[in-house]
């Protein structure tokens, strides 16, 4: 278990400069050395007393010098295209405050295995399907990659390979040409099948026949099968898919310095304590109780999530202690007002995106007031799995029939791999031991059905002479040779077509399909309506994440400062669990609380007062009384 600390220095711009050694003396006075319990020893640490001394020496992070702080700010301003470096170069420091920021991380390296049917071209490979029973997926040896590095591997399972006719061409090696519908010829593109050109001359491209040799099959009407490459046989086997994944969860305790904790994930620090084992134990001796609670929760969640369906190869735990250094207590959340320039730019961009809005009010407005409002959004997501069954059929091409083999498994007894959590998905699986062969109901097992276009006659009325055999000048119709009818283009004059239900096989394989559907049900609640902002717009934006909790079944939020959030959480959790636990299987739940910034802007234009809102991290604009708009897309 490693302990990391991240140095964070907070600088204030004032007129005077506080000496650095006085500030450190003040910190030492307010924060005496910690002498409490320490984390349990592990294989990388000799004894617990050494850990205690190690943490005590690093309880205070030395302040950086003013020159280092200035150089860092100048470099930051230089990296921004719209930032001037003058404030960073001419500033006067008043105070540099050191803050300890810590990060706890749990990594669980897992291995998962799944099987699927696969096939390849048969070239005489060994066939071992009936020699001896195939090994179980977890009995097949596989070399694990580097620990805590994601990887995948595919292995052919022994004793599962056998040869079967190609399912695409039914073992023939050839398939009908799709360009000519197996006729070997197609309509001449020069005379469009009329045999003559516009001047009445015989078509030289098709020699007056109206048809040319198909270039897709060279006149044979057949093409080589792409699946078996003309061999007619496939080697079918079961493939084992192995996936190694490193599952990482972070927890940052200290939020009192005013530094956004999401920035900590982009940097590194010094390791204080590391524990790497097959299964780590939760940290119980941390000086900060939040670290101990987070360690217990994350270790419990990882074990419950991965131990039943995956193989845990190793875990590494970074146990972080936190000694807070602070001089003031700030409120839970504050949304700073945006500047007038920023509000105007957002409004101009909004007006420019509307075809019927003039940008003059946004450019000429006069601000009267900018009001910042705290708007919270509570979201509960319940990821569920539901299963239903239905009868299905496919053309019978020699598949295995197993309806009389053994008992049919129940829908919830069939193993199905769950996709990514909180993402909707659907999968259809054939239920084992339910397949049987029956005659096609559409063609009465004949493989062919009557052509509906020519009513099974093979002929159609000539569209040139409308069946009269002659044109308006009483000349014989060249399209039908005076007969008044032509061969049916739908069935090529045969009067029947291949049955689309059984594809001409005459038999169908009936079986039961299991339909597995994963759906993420979302509940959202926005309590704040005091700003006059329509809450339905909140769902279109994002904000600052204040709280998140992901478990199999979450507990309601009970201690949030806004009691409306607590009540909504209790109601949503109760309703979701009551609604889905009886009809579906709840796989996981996730709840979160976000802070959505909303600024209410008051302005005047042409001596009239108006209001608009700038909201969300995307800084979108909403207004329902824009002063200059029209319905005819003309510029005012």
TrEMBL record:
Q: Which CDD domains does the protein's record reference?
A: DnaJ_zf
Which InterPro entries does UniProt cross-reference here? HSP_DnaJ_Cys-rich_dom (IPR001305), SSUH2_homolog (IPR052789)
Give the protein's recorded name. SSUH2 protein
Species this protein is from = Polyodon spathula (North American paddlefish)
């Amino acid at each position: 278990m490693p302990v990391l600390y991240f140095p964070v220095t907070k600088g204030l711009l004032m007129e005077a400069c506080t000496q650095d050694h006085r500030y450190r003396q003040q910190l030492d006075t307010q924060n005496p050395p910690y002498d409490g319990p320490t984390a349990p020893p592990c294989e990388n640490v000799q004894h617990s007393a050494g850990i205690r001394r190690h943490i005590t020496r690093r309880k205070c992070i030395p302040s950086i010098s003013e020159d280092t702080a200035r150089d860092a700010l100048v470099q930051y301003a230089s990296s921004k295209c719209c930032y001037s470096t003058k404030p960073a170069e001419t500033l006067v420091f008043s105070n540099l405050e050191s803050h300890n920021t810590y990060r706890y991380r749990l990594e669980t390296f897992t291995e998962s295995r799944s099987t699927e049917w696969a096939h390849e071209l048969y070239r005489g490979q060994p066939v071992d399907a009936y020699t001896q029973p195939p090994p179980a997926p977890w009995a097949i040896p596989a070399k694990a990659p580097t620990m805590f590095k994601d990887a995948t591997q595919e292995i052919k399972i022994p004793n599962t390979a056998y040869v079967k006719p190609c399912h695409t061409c039914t073992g023939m090696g050839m398939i009908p040409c799709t360009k000519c519908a197996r006729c070997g010829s197609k309509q001449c593109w020069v005379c469009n099948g009329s045999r003559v050109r516009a001047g009445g001359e015989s078509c030289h491209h098709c020699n007056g026949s109206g048809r040319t040799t198909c270039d897709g099959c060279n006149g044979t009407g057949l093409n080589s099968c792409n699946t078996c490459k003309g061999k007619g046989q496939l080697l079918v086997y079961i493939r084992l898919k192995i996936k190694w994944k490193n599952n990482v969860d972070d927890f940052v305790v200290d939020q009192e310095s005013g530094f956004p904790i999401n920035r900590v994930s982009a940097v590194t620090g010094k390791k204080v304590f590391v524990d790497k084992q097959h299964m780590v134990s939760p940290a119980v001796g941390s000086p900060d109780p939040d670290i101990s609670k987070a360690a217990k929760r994350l270790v419990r969640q990882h074990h419950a999530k991965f131990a039943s369906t995956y193989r845990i190869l190793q875990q590494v735990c970074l146990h972080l202690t936190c000694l807070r250094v602070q001089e003031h207590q700030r409120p839970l959340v504050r949304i700073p007002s945006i500047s007038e320039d920023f509000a105007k730019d957002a409004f101009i961009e909004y007006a420019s995106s509307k075809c019927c809005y003039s940008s003059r009010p946004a450019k000429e407005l006069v601000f009267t007031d900018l009001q910042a409002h705290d708007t919270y959004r509570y979201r509960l997501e319940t990821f569920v799995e539901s299963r239903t069954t239905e009868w299905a059929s496919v053309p019978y091409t020699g598949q295995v029939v197993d309806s009389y083999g053994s008992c049919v498994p129940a829908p919830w007894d069939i193993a199905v791999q769950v996709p990514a959590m909180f993402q909707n998905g659907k999968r259809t699986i054939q239920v084992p031991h339910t397949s049987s062969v029956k005659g096609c109901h559409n063609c009465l097992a004949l493989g062919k059905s009557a052509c509906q276009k020519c009513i099974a006659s093979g002929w159609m009325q000539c569209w040139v002479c409308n069946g009269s055999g002659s044109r308006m000048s009483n000349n014989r119709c060249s399209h039908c040779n005076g007969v008044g009818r032509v061969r049916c283009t739908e069935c090529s004059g045969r009067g029947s077509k291949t049955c689309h239900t059984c594809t001409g096989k005459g038999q169908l394989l009936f079986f039961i399909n299991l339909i597995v559907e994963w759906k993420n049900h979302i509940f959202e609640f926005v309590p704040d309506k005091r700003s006059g902002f329509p809450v339905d717009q909140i769902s279109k934006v994002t904000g600052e994440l204040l709280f998140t909790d992901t478990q199999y079944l979450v507990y309601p939020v009970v201690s949030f400062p806004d009691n409306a959030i607590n009540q909504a959480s209790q109601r949503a959790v109760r309703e979701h669990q009551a609604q889905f636990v009886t009809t579906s299987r709840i796989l996981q739940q996730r709840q979160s609380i976000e802070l959505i910034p909303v600024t209410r802007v008051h302005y005047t234009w042409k001596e009239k007062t108006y209001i608009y809102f700038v909201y969300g991290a995307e800084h979108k604009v909403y207004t329902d009384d824009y002063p200059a708009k029209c319905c005819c897309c003309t510029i005012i």
